[in-house]
Amino acid sequence: MTLKVARRGAIPPFIVMDVMTAAAERERTHGDALHLEVGQPSTPAPRGVIEAAKAALDRDRIGYTVALGVPELRERIARHYAETYGVDIPVRRIVATTGSSGGFMLSFLAAFEIGDRVALAAPGYPAYRNILKALGIEAVELPAGPETRFQPTAAMLEALDRPIDGLIVASPANPTGTMLSADELRDLAAYCHGAGIRLISDEIYHGIVYGEPGTTAASVSDSAVVINSFSKYFSMTGWRLGWMVVPDDLSRAVECLAQNLFISPPTLSQHAAVAAFDCVEELDRNVARYSANRRLLLDALPKAGLTRLAPADGAFYIYADVSHLTDDSEAFCRRMLAETGVAATPGVDFDPARGHGTVRFSFAGATEDMGEAADRLRRWLG
């Protein structure tokens, strides 16, 4: 007898994870892999976070917490919005989550019904569309390019042939690193609110910027959902902790979903993360390293013949047009790894329709690795 397998699992893989596996095998067999494929800081969690975790292990049994998170963490996140953005967010609207991934799941389930349509820029983070598909929600991709800095616009929404129920924005964005200005975000938020479109703002790369600071959607909209994470700026990827700023009309739905789906976010991570906001000096040193890596690659990649690069205003990625070299970015990345040991992510992960001629390089690693990667690519492509 053949047992049924649910269709919701028939979603595309997250290709970067496959590249990580291949890079790990290259490292095992050759010992020379350079990891420019994954958006993960090479630094550990801040010292203060580790010390807070040790103290929590000594004093706490690390049991369940309430579904929305421990009060100390939620209060500290609310204070962060006041100190960083000048925005007063009531603690009742702060929800700790199991990474930003948990935040996306909760927001999509709370805000959208099966069959709803949610727009997002392409290229964009692949898990958005894959989670939406698994939940029976239609992802409406908005082809974006250099003319809009790879960001969605109200004009794109107005040009759609059918209405949408939601819009996901990311600033800084993955894979391009581009950002929405304060005015652009304000205009998009106003358009969405007026049209009955739920705005979901991915802000997990806030703090990692190389010019103007990021603007939070919480400062321009009371109806937007904001999602952030301790993984990127706070260098805590494996701690699996994030947070949401939730509009009042979604708060009870999010709480009930969180209770049933996750029980609570990781308890040890919650206790430790309270200290993360007091580690700014250490964290900003990480950002200074990303900035140096960014300068290095923006200088070196054109010398290797890769001249069409997204601006990389923030985050730690460079999105490169390699269409003059290939029309199969997956094969190109496999060959690059096999012949140079440099791992990068093919653009089809972020833009299935147009990503066959693009590649994403992550510069979250050590500066010496970026320099070595640049040298290898120059020799390989030269």
Task: Bin the strand percentage.
Answer: 5-15%
Helical residue percent band: 40-55%
Shape: globular
Low-confidence stretches: none
> Which series of helices and strands comes N to C?
HEHHEHEHEHEHEEEHHHEHEEEH
Q: How do the strands line up in the largest sheet?
A: 2-8-7-6-5-3-4
| Terminal CA distance | 57 Å
Largest beta sheet, briefly? 7 strands, mixed
CATH superfamily of the largest domain: Type I PLP-dependent aspartate aminotransferase-like (Major domain)
The radius of gyration is 21 Å
**Could you report the average pLDDT, rounded to the nearest whole number?**
95
The level 1 CATH classification of the largest domain is Alpha Beta
Report the count of strand segments: 12
| CATH fold-level topology of the largest domain | Aspartate Aminotransferase, domain 2
Helix/strand layout:
Blueprint: H1 15-30, E1 34-35, H2 47-59, H3 71-85, E2 94-97, H4 99-111, E3 117-122, H5 126-134, E4 138-143, H6 154-158, E5 166-170, H7 182-195, E6 198-202, E7 225-229, E8 242-245, H8 248-261, H9 267-273, H10 280-303, E9 317-321, H11 329-340, E10 342-343, E11 345-346, E12 358-362, H12 367-381
Parallel strand pairs: 1-10, 3-4, 3-5, 5-6, 6-7
Antiparallel strand pairs: 2-8, 7-8, 9-12, 11-12
